[in-house]
């Protein structure tokens, strides 16, 4: 699915069109890994637009499917995505717990790249809850991963949020 590519290139209409096509194809073929991926992308896309109920719905669908089929990366991703939605919907404590759980899962899987986005989300959640020092600490961890891996797609947002918390 090219939706994320079109999105980051600044073509939201094409991104939405690609996402809808990808969702239709994935649901037609009912391939678990593909469905978990596209539902995760759909949740991510909805989060960019502040559509938090939609984020929760996609995260829940991906989480259920990934759990059923033993897809630990997608369980971790969907757990974090659900946590982010809960934080944005005012259920901060439960959302933070899910974000922490997703980070622990990513850590146990050995994936650094998936952790950066979730650390960013957790830093934002801490900031919204007035836990500035904790927010800055997780952002520092995320920036260390960015600098050690060279995967800098979230770097600007990490610095923006660090500035907001500071």
What is shown here, in short?
This protein is 83% helix and 0% strand. With 166 residues, the protein is mostly helical.
Summarize the structure in words.
This protein has 166 residues and is mostly helical. Helices cover 83% and strands 0% of the residues. It is built from nine helices and no strands. The chain has helices at 3-8, 12-29, 32-48, 52-68, 72-88, 92-109, 113-128, 132-149, 155-165. Helix 5 (72-88) packs parallel to helix 7, helix 7 (113-128) packs parallel to helix 9 (155-165) and helix 8 packs antiparallel against helix 9. The longest helix has 18 residues, at 12-29. It is globular and about 45 Å long.
Query: DSSP strand (E) fraction?
Result: under 5%
The outline comes out as globular
Computed Rg: 15 Å
pLDDT < 50 runs, ≥5 residues: none
Helical content stands at over 70%
Mean pLDDT equals 92
